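Minutes, project check-in
Item: structure for the 140-residue chain
Input as provided by the requester:
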Amino acid sequence: MVKNSNEDIAPTISIKAKENWSWSKEEAELLTRLGYACEKGTFVEQDYKAALQFYQLAGKAGDSQGLSNLAWMYQNGLGIEKDVQKAIEIYEKAADAGNSTAMINLGNIYEYGVLGEPDYKKCFKWYKKAAESGDKKRTL
């Protein structure tokens, strides 16, 4: 597909959330998808700052995948200073909400010793939780 450089057909998205706004599940998931599009540069220019904002909003709206994606950005320093400890905190919130991707990522952090030495007890705990979560679309 060839883009026509003379035409800018892509709309600009700006969201200003109202305080105490109640998001539906579908709206929260949409925020996560918009964040993912911005993070990966899918159909929009790659924009980590926008991705972070969408993921933060999705997490506040109750979408555990948005939280997990936000943690990934902290873990890898994508558009924000790398902070593995902050990533772990956010992954744990997502995992507590039943998100198996967050559980697997926590297992990876402990298996590969991202914080220093591997911690196989914690690694096993998180992989086991992911396997038992029943979230078949997100488990290994």
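Outcome recorded: The chain is about 55% helix and 0% strand.
No further action items on this chain.
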